[in-house]
Amino acid sequence: MTFSKILIANRGEIACRVIRTAQRLGLQSVAVFSDADRDSLHVRMADEAIHIGPAAALQSYLRKDRIIDAAKKTNAQAIHPGYGFLSENYEFCTMCKENNLIFIGPPPNAIRDMGIKNLSKIIMHDANVPVIFGYHGEDQSDATLISEAKKIGYPIMIKAVRGGGGKGMRIALRESEFMDKLNEAKSESKKSFNDDSVLLEKFIQRPRHVEVQVFGDMHQNYVYLFERDCSVQRRHQKIIEEAPAPGLDWSTRKKLGEAAVKAARAVNYVGAGTVEFIMDENQNFYFMEMNTRLQVEHPITEMITGTDLVEWQIKVAQGEVLPMKQEAIKLNGHAFEARIYAEEPENEFMPGSGRLTYLRTPPTGEDGKIRVETGVVEGDEVSVHYDPMIAKLVAWSTNRTSALQKLRNALQQYYIGGLKTNIPFLMSLCDNKQFQLGNVHTDFIKENKDALFHLQQITPTIAVAAASAFINSQQQTHYSSNGAPTLFSVANSSFRPNFLQKQSLSLTYDKKEYKFEIERINSSNLLITYDNKTYPVEIRPVNDELVLLIDGHQFRCRMHIDGDTCTFYSNVSRSSFDFKIHPPSFLAQLASSGMGGVAGSSVASGDPVAPMPGIIDKVLVQDGAKVTKGQPLLVMTAMKMEHVIKASKDGIVGKINAAVGKVVKKGDVLLTYVADDKNTKT
């Protein structure tokens, strides 16, 4: 069963991750790519690459036939599915077997049995694995589901039978909202899995999400590699994970591991799998589901056990015995993984997209205690067609406190420009006292919202530093043909960088304007007046950073300019700041008069706009239709999640601008109302 060439049926960071291990083991790798990924990192890393279709996943990465054909065309003997896409697809696994291709994962029956949530609960119950009470029946009529929900008692968790990754999952806190939540879950499930069947479970409030990494081989050997805590989530999706779970005693840890092995043994599991449990405040745990693949967060398990789980997958797929027995697997230290996403945490974590115009990663060192798992480089595009994850940042140390400090420091040295990310939010999370104490649960973000979503304060030193870095960047790269810096007004249009003169600069952060007067002494020294105080500033470029000496205080910083936004990074502030650059006054006057092409009338009139980049999935109304406030108008999909766009007022639809399948940008006007006095009242 040995093989020498692997096709990776995936993209992005997981494809790169598998390729690295394959290269280390002396195996050739084949990548597949869509139109959107033609120049992606995983394509460049692989020995060969095969084009499989357009950008949309349904026409490329989910095309089983094209991936099988790509394997045959390149004489690959095995396929690694990564995670997501076809990794838990029973039909694809079966097709691999039928075409004499080794599927690097579990057998088809295990994928099928664990993928159907109600069946998996029955199997787990029979295997003496603790299962939470709920309804897992085949009768999916509204009447039956309403009746069963009443029997279980609210709050109710509604979950897609074939679900995963938070898709097709809703929580009904009371009976009055059950049908709305049920319909939402069914619709999302149908789109994601082509099956709208759901199961109902009693929702445990303030639970922890604790999962166990298990491994099995073809010789009926099974081990667990301890647990991971993935409780801190948004939209039912993980954002930061750690291993081991904080606060667990060794007795509970052992019981968890043994229960996970029972689950794997019950379905004759082979390869890497994760058994997910829900845990209450008394550390009672109940089986939730089994992910029959490698998890996104597998690196933290590798860090605390000293293993390469992709290597284990490959060896097991070749028929080898598990590399280690249970007694040989030791837990060493603590590890965190932070998922870095293109998204806006302050805007309900709306996903984003765009080009990575600036990207600098933290130093990883040779000791392996910091890892950056990514599939992008500077200049790459985060596409609306795929998950918005940019990278996974992993940190290990001997204990939880030290590991968290390492993660926080590494996040501070992760610089991304061109789109908004969740890095500031992740740093805020690391600074949160309750998180530092390990008091985590799935409602953590909601309960700590005020503490987590606070803007960093701009101190005078930070304000002056940002102005200094901006002036320096203008001097280096943004002079117009007559020598005058662009983007901000100057008192003297004959400005030359080495001559003594004054100029004005205005930056805005969080709706507050910061005004500066700058007097340049020479190429590296400035006098900056801010808030009636003058600060002597010395600027010294060192490699990719600036070293600033402001009024006797020296520190490092960076500045990235993208359009009218300049992002300031500083080791003193332990955060980043997005400043808006004020245009010259004549441009501001044009914009305010409407002559500068500034949009805004549609938003002001209440016409619905796209809250994030995405793809139009459904249009629920027609031109001329009368709509009422709160009525669903369109359905968008963004990063595998469904978002319903509702009317903000009563009115008559004038024109629909968004057709099914259209890719829209954030802020695009999706439809307009008829503009008359009666129908434009908000």
UniProtKB/TrEMBL annotation:
Residue ranges annotated for the ATP-grasp domain, each copy included: 121-318
Names of required cofactors: biotin
Domain Biotin carboxylation: from-to ranges: 2-450
One GO term describing the cellular component: mitochondrion
Keyword Transit peptide: no
SMART domains tied to this protein: Biotin_carb_C (SM00878)
Stored Pfam families: Biotin_carb_C (PF02785), Biotin_carb_N (PF00289), Biotin_lipoyl (PF00364), CPSase_L_D2 (PF02786)
Record keywords: ATP-binding, Biotin, Ligase, Nucleotide-binding
Any one GO molecular function term: ATP binding
Lipoyl-binding domain location: 596-674
Gene3D superfamilies: 2.40.50.100, ATP-grasp fold, B domain
Name this polypeptide is given: Methylcrotonoyl-CoA carboxylase subunit alpha, mitochondrial
Native source organism of the sequence: Adineta ricciae (Rotifer)
